[in-house]
Amino acid sequence: MRILGLDYGAKTVGVAVCDPTGLIAQGVETITRKEESRLRATMRRIEELAAAYQIETIVLGYPKNMDGTVGERARRTEEFAQLIGRRTGLPVILWDERLTTVAADEILAESGVPAAERKKVIDKVAAGIILQDYLDNGRNGKKEQNGRREADHA
Prior knowledge:
single chain, globular, 6 strands, disordered C terminus, Nucleotidyltransferase, domain 5
């Protein structure tokens, strides 16, 4: 089963996919746009990637506040999840993404990637971390209380 992982931001969406066995996530690309509200090309690209990789489920990073509450960014992510679900017809699972961008930056820094270059790939690395966390913990229920829920896309 192929799963698509997304890290949704104001002007970028990091994209990752898992291997056909569902064990390993890998960053694929970062989709960019000029304005947050301009999502048409972003949606089209997500649909293309879902078709190309024969995706069955989408895991979308859910940016809760550090205290676990839902803020404005999380509400925008919920709206994005609804839109993706309607456009693709696929189930969308919101997955707690707290500190994934920090972890992605640390991984890239430790790998010797210069700061200027990190900005170009950090979102797809974060998407890979989100998806890998879901693969490692989500499907077997280890993180049931950590932000996972399927978005209603009816």
